[in-house]
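seq:
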Amino acid sequence: MAAGVCPRNGVTDIEENEFVADDDRLRTVDEHLAIVLDGIGSIDPIELTLLDSQGLLLAENVVTDVPLPGFDNSAMDGYAVRAVDTRDASAKHPAVLPVVGDVAAGAKSRAGMGPGLAMRIMTGAPIPAGADAVIALEETDRGVARVAINRAVGSGECVRRAGEDLQAGAPALGAGAALGPQQLALLAAIGRDRVVVRPRPRVLVISTGSELIEVGNRAAFGEVTDSNSYLIAAAAKDAGADARRIGIVPDDHAKLLDVLETQLLRADVLIT
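struct:
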């Protein structure tokens, strides 16, 4: 059996397939990490509600079947107009248009208006048929029956077009995306109330050593307060795992095997 030599204390009998690369040198940390990760399988995905999936990784490619936004709507409170009807407007010579109605957010049907007219409109309300722009309230006299518009408006101004953010059939989120508040809001906006995700791996941390004592106890001579398990569990949590400490197992082979066999039933990863 080939062996390697520990550079610190000359320890031999390190099996080559554990720590030594093919060229008889010790593996680097990155090399060893790659080998460890290569031997770890994926956890089966599960389907969860949106809020229950927060902080997890998406395990499916999400494609929207609706445009976002779903219809042309106003980005401002103001007046829906035809841009051509305001082309000569200025503060000194405003364009004065009759106001023929109001369009509220949540309107169930699309209003319409003819040339030379205006409609008061709320943010998020559908753009009336015949209008192609919105002038903000602040740039008018806020008229009720008639409105004076103080500048020319460009076609499409203050209008959020249907599908401007996402077209129907477009990818919304890809597998592997981390689900934070913005991603959950996007999923809700396209009508998804459940998604397939990778659950958090269950990581259990066991400290071994007869010299170890639990935090909160006064260490006698030769005893050491266990701190490594807190470090490892906290690091696992930072990486997204559901990590827990199991406690301390003394240097007793039978006890260690018993704990390992018991805890492996409820762990995806067990660290000692």
